[in-house]
Amino acid sequence: MVQFLPITDVYAREIFDSQGNPAIEVEVVAGENCLGKAQAASGAWKNNVKEAIVFVNDTIARELMDVNVFSQNEIDKILYKLNEEKWEEKAAVSMKYVVSVAAARSASQAMDLPLYRYLGGVNGRKLPIPMIYIASSGKRNAGHGHIRSFMVIPVGAKEFSEAIKMCIQVHHEVRKMEEKNGELPTTDEHGGIIFKGKDEEILESLKKAARNAGYEPGKELHFVVNCSAMENAVWIRPNRIGTISYAMDNIRDAQKEGKVVILAQEVGETEDTFIADLSVAMGCDLIKLGAPGRMENVAKYNRLLEIEEKLGEYAEFSSFCSRISG
Question: How far apart are CA 253 and CA 255, in angstroms?
Fold first, then answer.
């Protein structure tokens, strides 16, 4: 087994995120042809994406040249120490994150391993329960309510594929209800359907959609509101942390403390699916993803479905379901 393979190239280019804003994609090449790619999901690039690309292609590329691609900790330490005085914190962190992910993908390709296995070893086999964004009251909701987002957790599911189908079915029913009411459904930046009315009315509509889909609210499905305030839980947004190593350390620390670990994606996402692999590699309890009406969200669902299929009989499903379903 090869233990040393030098990084031979680091290259960044401009792309666009799901909202049409400038973002970056990074390639890391190890050896002659082991190529790993990653995309940054962040609005941080709106004003300085071209400068960020130059910084990656010049400074970061120079610092990482000939570093062992299998030494993720060393790569991430180099990234962490790079001078970031000229960058806003969010932009600097996102820049390091996307390079870190690309390096890990290059290494996993060189090892001929799926990314979740490369990062998590033999323990990388637990699928998280999806916490799916379904509906929104709008940014301001014209003063009608205080709840910004409505999520659904399919606690009655026995495996990931069943869980994600339940969420999608409820989402479809919500759209049908709006269309029957003569409303053309509009969506927000996460893909959630924007409702008019008071909080209680929105919740009742969601419960009705769940029943129409054949599920019992409160038993098979839980609706969660203002979920960032969920107690006894640690929210991890990997691209806000900076590197894979640091993100994994944060997750391990939370798990040692017995906390519920929730991985969450960002606004302005791309179709990069790293968060899916990381959730399985680290055995996270839940993964918070956007509504199924947008492909940047569905790409993560599909990656998790693929991982579940490849794991086969070794696949496990988050025990968080039984902990909250009673």
Answer: 5
Q: Which residue shows structure tokens 């205080």? A: 146
Interatomic CA distance for residues 287 and 235, integer angstroms: 10
DSSP string of 274-299? HHHHHHHHTT-SEEEE--TTSHHHHH
Distances, alpha carbon 52 to alpha carbons 35, 75, 78, 117, 285, in Å: 21, 18, 17, 31, 34
Report which DSSP code applies to 158: S
Q: Which of 141, 11, 10 is nearest to 75 (CA)?
A: 10
Which one-letter amino acid corresponds to residue 104? Answer: A
Flag whether pLDDT at 52 surpasses 90: no
Using one digit for the tens of pLDDT, what is the confidence trace for 315-325?
A: 999 876 655 54
Confidence of residue 50 (pLDDT cuts 50, 70, 90): confident
Of 189, 187, 136, 243, residue with least CA distance to 21: 189
Strands (E) across 63-128 are located at: 126-127
Contact between 297 and 269 (Cβ < 8 Å): yes
Interval 137-155: pLDDT, tens: 765 444 445 677 889 999 9
For 276-316, the pLDDT digits (tens) are 999 999 999 999 999 998 899 999 999 999 999 999 999 99
Angle ∠(57,58,63) on CA atoms, nearest 5: 105
Give the angle subtended at the CA of 181 by the CAs of 178 and 187, to the nearest 5°: 25
CA-to-CA distance for 148 and 161, rounded, in angstroms? 28
Fill in the amino acid letter for 86: K
With contact defined as beta carbons under 8 Å apart, do 5 and 69 qualify? yes
More confident site: 311 or 136: 311
Which among 24, 49, 39 has a CA at the least distance from the CA of 101?
39
pLDDT at residue 86, rounded to an integer: 58
Residue the block writes with tokens 């927000």: 188
